[in-house]
Specification:
Residues 19-86 form the HTH gntR-type domain. This is GntR family transcriptional regulator. GO terms for molecular function: DNA binding; DNA-binding transcription factor activity. This protein is mainly alpha-helical. The protein has twelve helices and three strands, in the order H-H-E-H-H-E-E-H-H-H-H-H-H-H-H. The chain has helices at residues 2-9, 21-34, 46-53, 57-69, 88-112, 115-133, 137-155, 158-178, 187-200, 203-219, 232-235, 237-244; strands at residues 43-44, 73-76, 80-83. The protein has a three-stranded antiparallel sheet with strand order 1-3-2. A hairpin with a 3-residue loop joins strand 2 and strand 3. The N and C termini lie far apart (49 Å).
Length: 245
């Protein structure tokens, strides 16, 4: 329970006006997943979470149900809830869905974005830059996800926004599971350039930049089925070959 408590409580937020207890629990867990403080396959004990947040298990259950609808946690009968751990094939499908979704969002954002929304996004990019500069990768990743959610808000389409929240959090899981190499980040300039294109109303430029941005994210993920395996004979095939020679 200690690890779960530390993962959930880091960066605790105070309750804001209008939030229900369900909302508070949901937001804390959602952020912990986005910041990769709760890695894939982490068991989410209702009893432990109820103690951590000082609420009933009924409230915890409602928050977990919301997260399961967004596909960021799995709930199985008699086994409880765990943070989702998408397979390679599921990861490919999620990323393809994101590519289609981001195109629709960008097209609408160019048409509907307000100056206030763009200014808010620029501040978000500044915070993201600072987080990565301070090697706070979890916070930087969460802010990057919030940037894409803000783009969906610019689109002014409620169903797309709901879908985007789910896709962004699922993408965070993919990065936690499949990102290769170090946690270098060069998306901040891409985010700024994207905002510039939206602000000037250049739809084609914005679409091109989003395509390049998603390809950059995709290129850092190891989604090649042949390069990862749970089979020890596959993992240590080079040793077997040397023994045979």
């Amino acid at each position: 329970m200690g690890n779960l408590k530390n993962s959930v409580n880091k960066g605790v937020k105070t309750k804001v006006a209008g939030q229900t207890q369900d909302d508070v629990v949901y937001c804390h867990i959602f952020d912990a997943i986005l910041e990769q403080r709760l890695p894939p396959a982490t068991k989410l004990s209702e009893e432990a979470l109820a103690e951590i947040f000082g609420v009933s298990r009924t409230i915890i259950r409602r928050a977990l149900l919301r997260l399961s609808i967004e596909k960021v946690i799995d709930i199985k009968p008699n086994r409880g809830a765990t943070v989702s751990a998408p397979s390679v094939e599921e990861a490919k499908q999620i990323f393809k869905a994101r590519e289609v979704l981001e195109v629709a969002i960008i097209e609408l954002a160019v048409e509907n974005a307000t100056k206030l929304q763009i200014d808010e996004c620029r501040k978000l990019v500044e915070e993201e830059n600072q987080a990565f500069a301070q090697d706070d990768y979890g916070k930087g990743l969460r802010l990057s996800g919030e940037f894409h959610i803000k783009l969906a808000e610019m689109a002014d389409n409620a169903p797309l926004l709901a879908f985007q929240r789910s896709i962004v959090s699922q993408s965070s899981l993919l990065i936690a599971m499949y990102e290769t190499g170090n946690h270098s980040n060069c998306s901040q300039d891409e985010h700024s350039e994207l905002l510039n294109a939206i602000e000037t109303g250049d739809k084609q430029q914005a679409l091109d930049l989003m395509g390049e941005h998603l390809e950059h994210i995709r290129s850092k993920l190891n989604l090649d089925d042949s390069t990862a395996s749970n089979d020890l004979h596959v993992v240590f095939s080079d040793v077997l070959k040397n023994k045979a020679s």
